[in-house]
């Protein structure tokens, strides 16, 4: 005897999103055909695609490189100068800590030649400090933003990070090398703070980058001349840090700008290694020459 219930057609199960099995979805991805809930839907040229297919297509898409080897970005999110904004954020937070700690944060991180001999991290950390005057940090952050949003997309985030950090250290090394006689010059015991060395490194980097792009360097040269002159005519400004950062940034950017296409990856690794070795070597030589090491 036949079972009447067995002869009734079974109702098809409702389609559910693979990522969210508790959600029924009758909309399907145009690429893979799987059900896709509203949270996982992404607009496509025709219809919608699921987030997995969008991610896969991005991964498979060829990366477009700039003339300097950086990854070309077209979307607002990917094109945002993340490194520039991060450095600005660190400097702002550090400046606030300087204010609220009554100088303790500043004393722990500022640079002076004698202090750098026993606490070498000061060669870098001083670049993230500023004087208590808002004008100091405002000027440096504005200059960093203007140059960073131009250079970072061209060089790529990794190369730009190397450029900034080496320029910062190069500024402190410039102060050390040009400090004069350690037993008669006050420069050996004068604290130095500010991102000026890093900023001047970016100014210096603009020269080979603009030349490589075939653009006029007139405005950059005027900018360098004006800012360089300030260090000689305005008191309490370290022109030595400006010069050290400028030279370091120009050399780093030259290596990146003129690296042969087939050698860009090698140069990207070699520049930080060689740069650190040269800066450390100059600092050790200077300290050894005055009997510190």
From TrEMBL:
<feature type="transmembrane region" description="Helical">
    <location>
        <begin position="266"/>
        <end position="288"/>
    </location>
</feature>
<dbReference type="GO" id="GO:0006508">
    <property type="term" value="P:proteolysis"/>
</dbReference>
<keyword id="KW-0645">Protease</keyword>
<feature type="transmembrane region" description="Helical">
    <location>
        <begin position="217"/>
        <end position="235"/>
    </location>
</feature>
<dbReference type="InterPro" id="IPR035952">
    <property type="entry name" value="Rhomboid-like_sf"/>
</dbReference>
<feature type="transmembrane region" description="Helical">
    <location>
        <begin position="82"/>
        <end position="108"/>
    </location>
</feature>
<keyword id="KW-1133">Transmembrane helix</keyword>
<keyword id="KW-0378">Hydrolase</keyword>
<keyword id="KW-0472">Membrane</keyword>
<feature type="transmembrane region" description="Helical">
    <location>
        <begin position="160"/>
        <end position="180"/>
    </location>
</feature>
<dbReference type="Pfam" id="PF01694">
    <property type="entry name" value="Rhomboid"/>
</dbReference>
<keyword id="KW-0812">Transmembrane</keyword>
<comment type="similarity">
    <text>Belongs to the peptidase S54 family.</text>
</comment>
<dbReference type="InterPro" id="IPR050925">
    <property type="entry name" value="Rhomboid_protease_S54"/>
</dbReference>
<dbReference type="InterPro" id="IPR022764">
    <property type="entry name" value="Peptidase_S54_rhomboid_dom"/>
</dbReference>
<feature type="transmembrane region" description="Helical">
    <location>
        <begin position="128"/>
        <end position="148"/>
    </location>
</feature>
<protein>
    <submittedName>
        <fullName>Membrane associated rhomboid family serine protease</fullName>
    </submittedName>
</protein>
<feature type="transmembrane region" description="Helical">
    <location>
        <begin position="192"/>
        <end position="210"/>
    </location>
</feature>
<dbReference type="GO" id="GO:0016020">
    <property type="term" value="C:membrane"/>
</dbReference>
<feature type="transmembrane region" description="Helical">
    <location>
        <begin position="241"/>
        <end position="259"/>
    </location>
</feature>
<dbReference type="GO" id="GO:0004252">
    <property type="term" value="F:serine-type endopeptidase activity"/>
</dbReference>
<feature type="domain" description="Peptidase S54 rhomboid">
    <location>
        <begin position="119"/>
        <end position="256"/>
    </location>
</feature>
């Amino acid at each position: 005897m036949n079972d009447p219930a067995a002869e009734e057609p079974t109702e098809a199960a409702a389609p559910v999103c693979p990522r969210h099995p508790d959600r029924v979805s009758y909309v399907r991805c145009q690429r893979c055909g799987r059900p896709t809930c509203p949270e996982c839907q992404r607009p496509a040229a025709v219809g919608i695609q699921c987030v997995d297919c969008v991610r896969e297509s991005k991964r498979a898409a060829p990366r477009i490189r700039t003339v300097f080897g950086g990854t070309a970005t077209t979307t607002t999110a990917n094109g945002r100068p993340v490194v520039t904004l991060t450095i600005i954020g660190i400097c702002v937070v550090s400046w606030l800590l300087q204010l609220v700690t009554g100088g303790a944060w500043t004393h722990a991180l500022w640079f002076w030649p004698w202090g750098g001999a026993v606490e070498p991290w000061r060669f870098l950390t001083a670049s993230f400090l500023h004087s208590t005057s808002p004008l100091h940090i405002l000027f440096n952050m504005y200059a960093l933003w203007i140059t960073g949003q131009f250079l970072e997309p061209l060089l790529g985030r990794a190369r730009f990070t190397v450029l900034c950090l080496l320029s910062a250290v190069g500024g402190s090394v410039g102060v050390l090398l040009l400090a004069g006689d350690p037993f008669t010059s006050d420069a050996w015991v004068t604290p130095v703070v500010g991102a000026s060395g890093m900023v001047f490194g970016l100014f210096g980097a603009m020269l080979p980058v603009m030349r490589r792009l075939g653009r006029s360097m007139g405005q950059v040269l005027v900018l360098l001349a004006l800012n360089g002159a300030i260090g000689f005519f305005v008191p309490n400004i370290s022109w030595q840090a400006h010069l050290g950062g400028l030279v370091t940034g120009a050399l780093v950017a030259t290596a990146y700008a003129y690296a042969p296409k087939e050698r860009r990856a090698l140069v990207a690794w070699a520049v930080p290694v060689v740069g650190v070795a040269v800066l450390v070597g100059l600092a050790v030589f200077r300290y050894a020459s005055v009997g510190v090491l």
